[in-house]
Q: What sequence folds into this?
């Protein structure tokens, strides 16, 4: 029996899909990349924006067409859209066999078996109590070859940002015991993982008893064989001085951080319910660079939020240039049902949102180009995770999260190099990566 999983959305969903494959493998299913070869097809959906929701629903629609030609195939709709829409998806997508929210993936084999026995379609949604058994630890198979891995430290969010659907689809904050996280990291390192990324909707608000997120990072720093630690996504409100000082002090903590700012206007931030100011965000960025010179800071931005004026938007462009973000994930605002901002007038027209998005792209491209060009002639430590963009190259990420494609001076790009740490001299800055030679 084979299972196909299609993933939409954030790194949390990528992590969840990995756990889904492991759960199904333990139930006797072999993963496949070909939906036409699958006995069970699972769509892991994202609802953070309307476009993402439409993509997942369209994917399920294509699987329904395939199911008509493949007798016995079962379709499961999972993830955040499943949690948000629940059993109504059976009316929208007749023929799917199960709907399951993110807190219930351990039940997947039973749901599939129930569908296989001719049972009625079933929706399993809602949030768990956050106990230690409700965090699915990695259970990789014998063929694990990845040098990097995601590790969940918490679920849910209680910030209530005006535009955000996450509290509705991921539930309240639930924090995983620190000892369990460290144990999973040790297991992954024992299987060849060199870098872990800690995941949480508001990761830096993590607590385990009286232990803080910085305590967790320091505990993981003591895991023998672990070379690198990253985390995403922190909230600016929870960037305290101790966490900031960990950069440059904790050896395994990489010199890169992604902090969503969302807007460069205090008025817009207030309407968003973000609970910090632009001035505070700049203070955080400056403090990070004081603590760890050379750290790269990336961010998320929303353009066209209700009430965003041209002046508000110009403030955002100025912030990009002031902070010098190494990467910007920018999006046009789209109202999400049930969020506080859905009751506000969506008063920035689509064409103006597109213009603002293009302007953000133009400014960030120039800033990013300058940052990449600053690395030419310098040496970066690269964790190899695959082959490069042209034959004979290897590829990986530097500690500052820059993608580096490079040639080996002696030797060739062989699979056994995955997971190696290589010193690479950067010879060229390209639009989306660096190139160099080992």
A:
């Amino acid at each position: 029996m084979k299972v196909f999983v299609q993933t939409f959305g954030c790194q949390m969903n990528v992590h969840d899909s990995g756990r889904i494959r492991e759960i199904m493998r333990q139930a006797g299913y072999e993963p496949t990349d070909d939906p036409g070869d699958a006995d069970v097809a699972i769509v892991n959906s994202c609802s953070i924006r309307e476009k993402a929701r439409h993509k997942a629903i369209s994917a399920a629609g294509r699987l329904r067409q395939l199911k008509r030609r493949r007798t016995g195939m079962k379709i499961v709709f999972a993830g955040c859209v499943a949690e948000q829409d629940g059993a109504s998806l059976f009316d929208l997508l007749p023929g799917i066999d199960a709907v399951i929210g993110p807190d219930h993936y351990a039940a997947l084999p039973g749901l599939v078996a129930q569908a296989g026995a001719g049972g009625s379609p079933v929706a399993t949604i809602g949030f768990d109590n956050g106990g230690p058994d409700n965090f699915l630890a990695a259970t990789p198979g014998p063929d694990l070859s990845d040098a990097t891995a995601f590790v969940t430290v918490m679920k849910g969010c209680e910030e209530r940002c005006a535009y955000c659907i996450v509290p509705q689809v991921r539930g309240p904050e639930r924090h995983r015991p620190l000892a369990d996280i460290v144990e999973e990291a040790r297991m992954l390192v024992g299987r060849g993982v060199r870098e872990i990324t800690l995941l949480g909707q508001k990761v830096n608000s993590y607590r385990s008893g009286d232990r803080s997120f910085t305590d967790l990072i320091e505990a993981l720093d003591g895991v023998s064989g672990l070379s690198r630690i990253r985390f995403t996504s922190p909230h600016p409100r929870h960037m305290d001085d101790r966490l900031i000082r960990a950069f440059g002090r904790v050896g395994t903590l990489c010199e890169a951080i992604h902090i969503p700012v969302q807007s460069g206007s205090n008025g817009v931030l207030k309407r968003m319910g973000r609970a910090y100011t632009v001035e505070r965000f700049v203070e955080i960025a400056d403090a990070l660079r004081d603590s760890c010179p050379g750290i790269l800071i990336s961010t998320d931005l929303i353009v066209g939020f209700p009430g965003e004026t041209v002046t508000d938007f110009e403030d955002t462009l100025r912030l990009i240039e002031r902070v010098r973000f190494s990467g910007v994930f920018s999006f046009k605002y789209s109202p999400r049902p049930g969020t506080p901002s859905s009751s506000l007038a969506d008063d920035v027209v689509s064409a103006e949102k597109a213009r603002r998005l293009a302007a953000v792209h133009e400014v960030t491209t120039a800033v990013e180009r300058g940052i990449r060009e600053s690395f030419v002639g310098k040496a970066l430590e690269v964790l190899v995770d695959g082959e490069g963009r042209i034959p004979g190259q290897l590829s990986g990420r530097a500690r500052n999260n820059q993608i580096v494609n490079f040639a080996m001076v002696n030797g060739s790009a062989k699979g056994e190099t995955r997971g190696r740490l290589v010193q690479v001299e950067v010879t060229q800055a390209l639009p989306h990566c660096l190139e160099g030679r080992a």
